[in-house]
Amino acid sequence: MISNLWKKSNIVTFMGIAFSIVGVCLCFLGNIKYAIVMLMLGGICDGFDGPIARRINKEANPYGIQIDSLADIVGSGVLPVCICLAIGYKSPIDMAIYVFFIICGITRLSYYNVNCSDKDSFSGMPITSSTMLLPWMYVLCNNEIAFMIGLTLLSIAFVSGLKVKKPSMKVKVALSIGGAILGIAILFLI
Fold first, then answer.
1. CA distance 76 to 20
2. What span, in angstroms and rounded, lies between the C-alpha atoms of 103 and 72?
3. DSSP characters over 46-113
4. CATH number given to 2-188
5. Contact yes or no for 138/150 (Cβ under 8 A)
6. DSSP code of 6?
7. What is the arithmetic mean of pLDDT over 114-123?
């Protein structure tokens, strides 16, 4: 069993999990900016783990697929909630939104794992989009109500019938570069 899990093709996914767990720990320590950078690094790992795994393994690895989904729950579901809590969004309504966010994210992941037949697009916004959108929300929404509305709309988008085109490798690289620039800005300018 363990030999199937510890394959080279899963290393990038495990790196993403490590960034996510460090991000959660940083939230508990009150270091929001570095937690957001960990969120983005985890998102970058998620963007590239599949293509790297497919390059290493010529066939799909069912263990890797499950590890990736579990990593998405932590890095794109739990960590964003921890960041929101660290920011100070702790009202009962906020808590209900966090529950809704994670349930919608898990529902989206489960649906995708069972019905992932479309190779060109996603049905519903991928939960991993939170790794790109939450940092922008942090920069642009210095208001709890606006932030929670954004999180609620994102949750709804997870389970919507919205068709989202899968990004090409060029788009993933461009998003990663943009994320690096935003991460530097968050650390040093905000």
1. 8
2. 13
3. HHHHHHHHHHH-SS--HHHHHHHHHHHHIIIIIHHHHHHHHHT--SHHHHHHHHHHHHHHHHHHHHHH
4. 1.20.120
5. no
6. S
7. 69
Which residues make Cβ contacts (< 8 Å) with residue 161, sequence separation at least 6? 123, 124
Reading the block at residue 20, the tokens are 């996510």
Specify the pTM: 0.88
Q: How far is CA 176 from CA 1, 40, 54, 107, 149, in A?
A: 33, 8, 20, 26, 26
Q: What are the CA-CA distances from residue 83 to residues 17, 25, 172, 181 (Å)? A: 16, 10, 24, 20
| Bridge partners of residue 123, in order along the sequence | 163
Q: What is the pLDDT of residues 127-159, one digit of tens each?
A: 988 998 899 898 888 789 999 999 999 999 999
Domain residue ranges of the chain, discontinuous segments joined by +: 2-188
Residue 97's contacts (CB-CB under 8 Å, 6 or more residues apart) are 148, 151, 152, 155
* Residue-wise pLDDT tens digits, 29-47: 999 999 999 999 999 998 8
**Which residues make Cβ contacts (< 8 Å) with residue 94, sequence separation at least 6?**
84, 144, 148
Q: What is the dihedral of CA 122, 147, 131, 90, to 10 degrees?
A: -120
